[in-house]
Protein: Acyltransferase 3 domain-containing protein
Amino acid sequence: MIWTNSFELSRIVRIFMSNGSVLFVFIAGYLFQHLSVKYSPNKYYINKLKNVILPYLIISIPAIIVFVYFQQRERVWESFYDNPEWLQIIYFYLTGRHLAPLWFVPMISIFFLISPLLIAADKNKKIYYLLPIFLLISCWIERGLPYISFIHFFSAYLLGMFCSHFKHKLNPILSQPKTLLLLGSMILAFALGEFFFMKGTMTWVNYLQKISACLFFLGLLIYYGDKLTSPIINVVANASFGIFFIHSYVLTAGKLSYTQLVGDLPSGNPVLHIVITLSTLFLCVSIILGIQKLFGRSSRYLIGS
Structure:
C-alpha cells in the first residue's frame, strides 16, 4: 500500500504507528523483571535458545536463500555483496537485515546475554536512578546495527523493569484517570511537535512519544483489568510471537498476489490500512493455529508460538 494521495496523512499515520518496537522492548523488560524471581541462568538461556533463537534461525531460511542466491537486498551496506555467500548468510543472521522485523532478534539477544547483569542491577536498584540519563542517550543515539539498537532501546527495557519492580507503588498511580489523561496529552503533544517541527517519523520526539505510550497503555490495562479479557484476545496473545516471525512473509505474499492479479497497489487511506492490518492478523493467526495443530507443542521451536 502506498500513500501518494496524501503525504500529510501518511506522516500522521507513521507518527502514531511507527517505532512500536519501543513498546515491545518495554514489555520485554517488564516481563523479565516480573519473572526474575524464578531466574536461573541455565534455564533462561536454554529457554531463549529454544523459543527465540531456534525459530529465528528456521524462519530466516527462505528470506536468506532469496537474498543471497536470487535477489539483492536493498537494506544492507554498500559492500555487503562483495563478501562470499557463506559470509553474507552469517551477516544476515547477525543483523536480521534479511527480513524487515527480524532486526529485533539480534538486538534483543544482547539483553538475553547480559541477563545476569540485569538481575544484579535490579536487586541493587541503584541503576534505576540513572533512567533519565539512559532516556537522554536513547534520544541521542539512533537505532542501527544490533549493538547500536541495544544502546538506543536500553532505556525502554530498563523502564519496563522499573515499572515491574515498583509495580505495587506505580500501578495505583498509573491507573488513575488524571494520570491517564496526562499521559494521553503527552502522547498527543509529542505527536504534534514531531508533525510540525521535525523531519521524518523516527526522531527522538517519536521515541519520547512511544515511551509515554508505554506508561499510558500499562495504566490503561491496569485500570480496566479483567474487563479486557476475552477468548479472541487470548488467542492473539498466545500467537503473538509467531505473528512477529511470520507477518512479513504474509504481507509480502499479499502484495505480490495483489499486483499479479489486479495490478498496482491501491493508494493508502486509514480505512484500507485498518483492513490490511486486520486481514494480515487474521491470516497470521490462522496459519499459526494450523501449525500448532500439526506440530503440537513443538510448534514453538518453529515459529515461536
In short: The radius of gyration is 20 Å.
